[in-house]
Amino acid sequence: MSDFTYTLPFTNEQFLIGIRNELKRKGKTNLYNFLKKSRLSVDKLGISYYVNHSGRWDAEGVGIKFYVHPANIDTLNTGANKNNLFAICNNLIPGEVGFDLKEIEFAPDLSISFDDDIVSDLENQVSETTNSIIKHILPEDIREKGKYMAEVYTYLYSVENSLRVFIEIVSKEKYGEDYFSKLNVTKSLKNTMSSRKEKAEKKKWLSVRGDNSLFYLDFKDLGTLINNNWDMFEEYFDTQDFILPKINEMADCRNLIAHNSYVGKTERDLLKSYYNSILKQIEDKFSKSYDWF
User: Can you give the residue ranges of every domain in the chain?
Assistant: First the structure.
């Protein structure tokens, strides 16, 4: 009687997350991105011996099918990519489960729109073109840094907008729905907002910022707003020296990204450290003040 469990100790979703994390850790960024929005199934093929006369006699052969963006299938099916993915999948299956991986294959997931994944489109243009010029003007290191910077931008985008929401909640609590007209806003900030609103009005083809005035202020402007209305925010941050330098340094990183400059690991770690510090500082008082937390 076998001691194998014949059951994976994780869901298919967790398995896919683990695969993508391993790809990222090993620097296989292209493969990592090709599996974006994908899903997988693990299908039993029967006792390994009867599949191809290899493997442990009492283990079950399994195949993994990845359902991916249709445009990525040909690239994923190339020898190197498929072999790398097979090795990672095989390594993540615990030995005591009793599954011997026999094959991986790729099928189109028609629910993934061709318009949804511009990163994959970029990779396909480079990998499929016979024109060597694009490989020279768009080398792999630039593409890899672009993907890295996309993650940093996503983080900063979330941080910046969470501060806007925080400011809005605190301000509404004190002044009500018409809070912005009652805030202490410098003449310089008012001019900046007016200028941005005028430009937005003229450029109808661009996505508008909306009616919320806070979205016409940049990262550093939010720090200035907190500073100029310190009586409302001091209970959350204790001192201006705690919050303002952190916002300013994060804003500097944001500006680097906005100008397509590279943000290294040191700055990336700093962003996480600063934001976590801010969250810990406000979390306790915020949760006590608002019962919907």
Answer: 12-129, 142-289
